[in-house]
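Renewal narrative, Specific Aim 1. Our central claim is that a sequence can be written position by position from structural information alone. The example that follows is taken directly from our test logs and has not been curated for this report. It begins with the structure tokens describing the chain, in the order in which they were read.
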């Protein structure tokens, strides 16, 4: 499937950002003042990340590790488990 590649597709014409491997899954957080990516492998290891992005306190949680990759196989249910993550503004 699409996500089994280790580099961007040939039609990608932008500058390659090598901070993470090609097609690394991340939870992206944008506050308007700043952007930050939290890689799935880090979240899977830690379970949660408390951070500040652009002056905003945020929390990122790792979810079910068996969430299927929708782009890995013809049928979503046949895709390999890749996990999931979610971010929230950390306000009480």
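The sequence written for that structure reads:
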């Amino acid at each position: 499937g699409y996500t089994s590649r280790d580099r961007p597709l040939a039609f990608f014409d932008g500058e390659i950002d090598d901070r993470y491997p090609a097609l690394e899954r991340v939870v992206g957080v944008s506050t308007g003042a700043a952007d930050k990516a939290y890689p799935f492998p880090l979240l899977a290891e830690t379970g949660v990340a408390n951070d500040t992005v652009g002056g905003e306190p945020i929390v990122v949680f790792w979810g079910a590790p068996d969430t299927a990759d929708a782009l890995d196989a013809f049928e979503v249910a046949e895709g390999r488990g890749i996990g999931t993550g979610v971010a929230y503004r950390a306000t009480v």
